[in-house]
Amino acid sequence: MTSTPCYALSDWGTSRFRLWIVDNEGRVLAEKRSDDGLDTSRSRGFALTLEGHLAGLGAPAGLPVIICGMAGSRQGWIEANYVPVPADLSAILSGAVKIQGIDRDVRIIPGLAQSGTSPNVMRGEETQLLGAILDRNLSNGIIAMPGTHSKWVELEHGRAKSFSTYLTGELYALLASQSILRHSIGDAAASASPDHPQFTAALELMLSGERMLGELFGIRAAMLLDNLQPEGAASRLSGLLIGAEVAAAKVKLSGKVTLVASDAMAALYGKALRVAGLEFDLVDADEAVRKGLFVAACGIWPARGPSA
Amino acid sequence: MTSTPCYALSDWGTSRFRLWIVDNEGRVLAEKRSDDGLDTSRSRGFALTLEGHLAGLGAPAGLPVIICGMAGSRQGWIEANYVPVPADLSAILSGAVKIQGIDRDVRIIPGLAQSGTSPNVMRGEETQLLGAILDRNLSNGIIAMPGTHSKWVELEHGRAKSFSTYLTGELYALLASQSILRHSIGDAAASASPDHPQFTAALELMLSGERMLGELFGIRAAMLLDNLQPEGAASRLSGLLIGAEVAAAKVKLSGKVTLVASDAMAALYGKALRVAGLEFDLVDADEAVRKGLFVAACGIWPARGPSA
């Protein structure tokens, strides 16, 4: 490292672990990605897992660590309670929980919860949200964060007013690998393409108000009757699910959309938003979560931050 | 057996096998249910599996056998081609395929296929359909056959005009046992109840036009925030999926509905149709498939049938 390590930032989820060491401007000095999600980390010990990765990146002993994600759930390291919406995002920062009984200063960021007739929770995405809002200086509009459990947040006067969750990514994985559609998709689950005509046709069908549940089996039938190929089948399934998500969100929400996504997800959702006629800005998901973690760290340990 | 065996009837699906021996009026003389679906039967041999069950029921050597279901698919015993819709149901009977190279006369009933912009196939349900139509002397209307892959058929002038498939049952099983919702439902997947307020509320939500994809995660959130219990979670998931199916079918189809279902499915779908304001008659699914098989057998081997 040529610059001085200031904070360690971690996005610690159910199935993956990411760690960055940054300087006092948030520049990445070192980075680690691993499969040490909750299950493996719980059996080995969270502190031991974290220290192992920190040591691998040459982190100094006193370096403080800020964590977001499912590590803060009941099944994680320590439960960081949910902050209720409508929420000032500063409440996310002040709600961070300090891990007791270890030498290092480690804090876990709380999630957001929505009570009432549409109960909802998020954990990890609140930090992405914070990063996206600060990156684009947003105070109103919609923030879409696609993924296993896609989150759509309504922002009003700089506060997270309400949010919805779509099971899109999880449903895609289950249907492609475990349902009758696995015979049509095979190993092509990762080959869904925004440029495939099946993706576009499926998007348009869902945006016209059709229900996804009655269209899924058509992928199987099209393979049997019309020789639909695996990449086409994957693209159609992706179009049906993402189309259903965007169609539902479009009805519920209005305002400029900020899409927080990377790589293939950015391409698929970008196409879906365009076909839906929704204007949007793109923020890289990795950068957003890192920025959110960095801002949280600066708030918790200001003496080490940009002004230091 | 007190009466003379006339035919053996079999519904042979992907995961289960059912066999009835009936007399010349279609009365059941003996019955067998087993888990000998396609996979186990393929490795042991279809003929051997069938003969084993026939022997177990004391069937005579010359008894002819009629079969419907996935045993007639490419992954089954022999492929019985699809009959295209619009289809006279007599075409189902005349399309039955004879198994070659065995001593017994065994025939497999073909499925139905729908080409064009809404490709679709069914295999097994065409026999249930035939039974329901004959049982109620139907020539027009809607026949709903809920299940792993629910089928809704539009009947016009006694012909199967078109049909849709909803992945409701398969999606329920996947979500209840493999998704994040498994933590909320646990062992209660079979406990969805038509009388649970969560079932009714979910039905009403779906019938109001809401999208199911954005409501699934709410079951998880309601467990975390409102202590939703497993039976309530199962009932809610069932209501969301069945509600989405009925809402979609209601938009596409009109006419009197004949619901072909048994036991728990009959109760859940019956409630859903009532909440949707759809009039319906109930036909027992087991009786319908047996009646369809019997009528097919009488058409193929008339000399043994009712007039014999």
Automatic annotation (TrEMBL), chains A, B:
List, alphabetically, the InterPro entries matched.
DGOK (IPR007729), DGOK_C (IPR042257), DGOK_N (IPR042258)
This protein's record includes keyword Protein biosynthesis = no
A GO biological process of this protein is: D-galactonate catabolic process
> Keywords of this protein's UniProt record, alphabetized?
Kinase, Transferase
Keyword Transferase present in the record's keywords: the answer is yes
GO molecular function terms listed in the Swiss-Prot or TrEMBL record: 2-dehydro-3-deoxygalactonokinase activity
Q: Which Gene3D superfamilies match?
A: 2-keto-3-deoxy-galactonokinase, C-terminal domain, 2-keto-3-deoxy-galactonokinase, substrate binding domain
Which superkingdom heads the taxonomic lineage of this protein's source?
Answer: Bacteria
Q: What is this protein called?
A: 2-dehydro-3-deoxygalactonokinase
